Amino acid sequence: MASPSFFFFHALLMVAALATTASSQHLSPTFYDKICPKALPSIKKVVENAIQKERRMGASLLRLHFHDCFVNGCDGSILLDDTDKIDSEKKANANINSARGFAVVDRIKSVVDKVCGAPVVSCADILAVAARDSVVALGGPTWKVQLGRRDSTTASRTDANKDLPSPFMDLPQLIQNFNKHGLNSHDLVALSGGHTLGFAKCGIFRNRIYNETNINPSFAMSLRKSCPRSGGNTNLSPFDQTPARFDIRYFQDLKGKKGLLHSDQVLFNGGRGSTDGIVKRYSLDAGAFSDDFARSMVKMGNIKPLTGKKGQIRKNCRSVNSKKL
């Protein structure tokens, strides 16, 4: 019969094992410090080079991380190409002919795997770091990216169509959508502030500039020049007048009824909406916006990550490994 001390020792081992397992399930900003200390500097260099060539790329890389996290968590699923077994999220309504930056991610993956000597950095983590580096490169805040995500082995166009917020949503729908992912109204407004960067296509905001009333008339008129009632669906217009600079112009425009998308303007309703106060604060305080944006980005990056032995580290961000890594 085993002695009481045996059971006590065995229990201690079990507790230690559980503690180790639990800690491995959490993300950490130092995850790659020992296994590949050159990983993050390498990602930063590729991102900065890409943005130097095309300033718009910063907004595109930020958007990829957002659209990845909102569909079954931050797992790199948005990067998977269509196959007999993969129903690519790239074909979802919010992504098709819209999501971009995939070639830059491919370049990052190639460079990072080379400096690390092996595929140890996940595609999901690459998206998270590239989003942060893009914001910093365009004058925005920095934050410690939590790392250690692994990549999914599947994707879902159906879930992408269901879970990605639509540019046509009203405020209650947006709040509900964000709440579903564990994000509150402050996160909604802060993360929507990512629209201080980038452009939208005419087909997405045409109805707003011709049919909506909560829009500045001269603003609507100016947009109609490049967005006719028919045709020109892919013509681009900036979310604000400084689309390559991370600033508070986006929120100032909302106060002037110059939000480009329906889902932008519903965040501010002339002092009567539940998020109006947040918009007002950000429109006056760049520091408050930057701090909250960074905090919400970390929070968003923690949505259902695959860690430990779940998922895999893809060799190619566009396809699932034939053997698990």
From TrEMBL:
<protein>
    <submittedName>
        <fullName>Uncharacterized protein</fullName>
    </submittedName>
</protein>
